[in-house]
Amino acid sequence: MTSSGVIADPPILAEAQERAAGVDLPPASAAAWNVHTSLEVLEALYNYNHWLFNRVRPFIRGDVCEIGSGTGKITRFLLSNRRVVGVEPFEQSLRVARERFKAHLNVRFVRATLQSCPNEAVPAGTFDSVVCLNVLEHIEDDVHSLAIMRRLSKPRGRVVILVPAHMSLYGQLDVSFGHYRRYNRRSLGRAFAAAGLHVTHSWYMNAVGYFGWLWNARIRRRREIPLASARFFNRLVPFVDAFERVVPVPFGQSLVMIGTPEPDER
Predict the structure, then answer these.
(1) Which pLDDT score, from 0 to 100, does residue 39 have?
(2) What's the gap between Cα 113 and its chain centre?
(3) Quick check: 47 pLDDT over 80?
(4) Which terminus of the chain is less hemmed in, N or C, by CB atoms within 10 Å?
(5) Where are the domains of the chain?
């Protein structure tokens, strides 16, 4: 455990360094240690990950392509779908995911970058749902990446995106995470339109997390997520979820956007 109270593990450090080098992300640097500890904290937050998935679950159906599947923290919630293909470029993550889901015959993982798709293993026009949660912000050319997701989708399919919200929150945590940007509805909507995607739904979520990120990233200028804070928020998730289902929030730490291929693009 690090002195800051964040658990550290060398395999996840290797994954973080691969992530920084392999998916159009900023190159590996001294910040890699902070990246890996932050990734480890997020992996451990079951309530948080389940909450994110539950908010987009109604828009996911049929054959699913998960972009940036990692070790399977979201894949585990997709197992009831007919077919799941996880696209992940990092061998270490793939080994963990393949072992974790080896009993599930409807799940397959492909070592590839999004930029190398479509390909024989991840063919164009074959997925009912293309899911990309907390990945797009790591990719420099987000419009091109969204256009690839559109190509992977069936004509009536859905592209399901979740990204960090509000550039006003961009701070040291974002730099350590390898984020190129944060989004609002207008900026992400422009990217969807440029990629040939028609926006059908969008909403902000996690207003409580907005203030937590503001405190840690902008005011305290932290480079990693404190483990105690992450665990405390993980316990709060059921209450935050219940509140936001009753009272839609006008801002939040995250932004969800759902799109379908524009008719003239297919």
Answers:
(1) 53
(2) 14
(3) yes
(4) N
(5) 10-265
CA 230 to chain centre: 17
Half-sphere exposure of 108 (CA within 13 A, CB side): 11
Distance CA 121, CA 87 (A): 10
The answer to whether 184 and 234 have CB atoms below 8 angstroms apart is no
Tokens of 183: 């989004």
Q: Which CATH class is domain 10-265?
A: alpha beta
Cβ proximity of 210 and 251 under 8 Å: yes
Confidence of residue 225 (pLDDT cuts 50, 70, 90): confident
* Closest to 154 (Cα-Cα) out of 124, 131, 133: 124
What type of residue sits at position 12?
I
20: amino acid identity, one letter: A
pLDDT in tens, 122-168: 999 999 999 999 999 999 999 999 999 999 999 999 999 999 999 99
Residue with tokens 């420099």: 140
- Edge-first strand listing for the sheet containing 127-133: 107-110, 83-87, 63-67, 127-133, 153-164, 254-261, 197-205
Q: Measured between alpha carbons, how far is 155 from 149 in angstroms, rounded to an integer?
A: 12
Sign of the torsion angle spanned by Cα atoms 31, 32, 33, 34: positive
pLDDT, tens only, 57-72: 999 999 999 999 989 9
